[in-house]
Predict the 3D structure of the following.
Amino acid sequence: MKLRTHYIFSTGLLTFLDSVLFHEYFYYALILSGMVSVIGNSLIDRIGHKEIATRYGYIPVRTPLTHTIPRSVVWGIVSIIPVFILLLIYYYGFSYHEYYFSLSNKVLMLILLNGVVVGPSHLLLDVFTERGIYVKKYGRWKRFALAHFRYDNPLANGLAILLGVIMLLAALYLHNYHYYNYDF
C-alpha cells in the first residue's frame, strides 16, 4: 500500500484503540497516534525496502528486517522513542513541576500501546499486496500474502483509507458519548 494509506489507516486504528481504553484522552490520542503512525510507518518502509539492480532497472524489494510480525512490533516500539522524548521535553522542560504538568501513567500506556500496534497495523495492510509479508517456514523466510493487489491499486488504497477515517469517526463518537453522558 502507499505510505499515506498506512498513515491514515494506522492513525485511525491507533486512535480508535486509544479511545476505547482511554476515552478521556481523545485529543492526546489523536495527536500522539498521528505522530507514532508517521514515524513508525516511515521507519518500517524506509528500513524495510531495498532496491535491487536488474537489467531492466532498479526494483524495490521488501526485506525480512521489518516486514515480519515480531520485528514490526520491535520497530514500532523504537518509533515511540522520539514521541516520548518530545513529551518529556513538553512536560518537564518547562519550569512548572506541579501535579497538573506531570506525565501521567495513562499517557505513557497510551504511547506504549501505540508503539506495539503500529507495526502489525502496517503489516495488516501489506499482507494484501502482491509481495505480502515474511513468515518463517522450515527455518527460511517465505512470503505470505492474502490477496495480490498492487501497492498502488486505487480500490485497495481507497478502502483502507476509508476504513481509517471510519475508525477516526468512531473514536470521536466514543469520546463524545463518554464526555457528554458520564461525569468523570
The two ends are 40 Å apart (CA to CA). DSSP finds six helices and four strands in the chain. The chain has one domain: 3-181.
